[in-house]
Amino acid sequence: MATSLAEIRAKLQASENRGTGGNSQGGGDNAIYAHWNIKEGDTAKLRFLPDANTDNTFFWVERNMINLPFAGVKGSADSKPVVVQVPCVEMWGEACPILAEVRTWFKDPSLEDMGRKYWKKKSYLFQGFVRENPITDDQTPENPIRRFIISPQIFNLIKAALLDPELENLPTDYQGGLDFIITKTSKGGYADYSTSKWSRKESALDATESGAIEQYGLHNLSDFLPKKPSEVELKVMKEMFEASVDGQAYDSERWGNYYRPRGVQVVTSSAPAQETAESKPTAEATTAPAVEAPKVEETTAEATPTAPVETPAGESGNKRAEDILAMIRNRKS
């Protein structure tokens, strides 16, 4: 936990310098505040709180997930397309086997769209109070300290203000902190939060909020990140990725003990995945966090995607997909 705004600024600046030089659990309650459900033109006022983890300089943690789309579920006649979320191990500073493959696609303009599809989806996990809530059907849980899944668009606004030298106090300060106002508009048919901002006026936590912190304590935000994949699970993730790219259906007998589509009931097998596990898997099945999160922006590391490649006139989408898959397979061979 940071003890000063200067410490946060120093670490943010160091992170930006590195970036320009080169290269959970969801819980069954409504602790996560779905700010993306506010109506267009409405605002929600949030008050962020520090992370209980004193080793974390920031009052947030970064979350990187990879979406693996499948044509359906194997063995289900009326199965619709499903998506399985798996954690990107770059969250733990390790090399991701999926991104190692996808990075090479950005060197070929015809594969850039496919690369963006499988690139990690970044979001940030915060905690705090909802001080003004325009969502009429939202119910504040018994513990009013909520969690927030923040997209890169909103996070960049949060970070920019923290680097502003005119900001004097930590926004999470109990006495002189600032509220963050999320404003939802639209742009190009999509939700837009670019007018969100920090409040100009400092304010102290009220007695109810202070009492909630004393009663329930702060969350250790890293507790709500996905479990770090084991060596076996990394092999399963790579196998699922290859099957997804090849357009196959999700195989619950093969992967159900590891990662499953959100909101889909699948029959799992007690046997480990074939051709992937050289050792026994962990006893506990691993699933992506069961959290309905907003659509987050896709980011790339060493490549800057150009405009999407248009499908030539008269060429079907299926034919285009087949050509892309053939190119990927040829690159592997």
Summarize the structure.
This protein is of the alpha+beta class.
Report on the structure:
With 333 residues, the chain is an alpha+beta fold. The model is unreliable at 18-28 and 271-319 (pLDDT under 50). The chain starts with a helix and ends with a helix. The protein is built from eight helices and nine strands. It is globular, with a radius of gyration of 22 Å. It has a single domain (5-332), classed as Replication Fork Single-Stranded Dna Binding Protein (Replication Fork Single-Stranded DNA Binding Protein, Alpha-Beta Complex), CATH 3.90.198.10. β7 and β8 (190-192) form a beta hairpin.
Kindly list the characteristics that best describe this protein.
single chain; 333 residues; alpha+beta; Replication Fork Single-Stranded DNA Binding Protein; 7-stranded antiparallel beta sheet; two-stranded antiparallel ribbon; 9 strands
What is the CATH superfamily?
A: Replication Fork Single-Stranded Dna Binding Protein
Question: Which class do the helix and strand fractions yield?
Answer: alpha+beta
What percent of residues are in strands? 15-25%
Distance between the termini: 48 Å
Q: Tell me the CATH topology.
A: Replication Fork Single-Stranded DNA Binding Protein
Q: Rounded to an integer, what's the Rg over CA atoms? A: 22 Å
Write the layout of secondary structure elements.
Blueprint lengths: L4 H17 L21 E6 L12 E10 L11 E6 L9 H9 L6 H7 L2 E12 L13 E5 L1 H11 L17 E4 L1 E3 L2 E3 L4 E2 L8 H10 L14 H15 L6 H4 L61 H16 L1
Antiparallel strand pairs: 1-4, 1-6, 2-3, 2-4, 4-5, 6-9, 7-8
